[in-house]
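go over whats below:
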Amino acid sequence: MFGEGRPEEILVGIVSAALAVLLAIRIRHALTKGVVPIYKKRISRSEVGEAKFNFVVIANAVGMLLLLWISADLIFQIR
């Protein structure tokens, strides 16, 4: 159940869940405004084209899903 793991596993699970939430906000911002921040640069849908922009958004979504999987495994001991 919840919290049966070691304390450091729970902490890393909570941190990864928080990062997943931040990525979800980033994806929502990208889909609504058409701009994705990458490192020190922002790319827009009109600059790079629809296909490349969608690839960046999908890559962020895959990263978010991986972070959610990691956090669920560490917090709830799914195995």
Remarks:
- The longest helix spans residues 7-33.
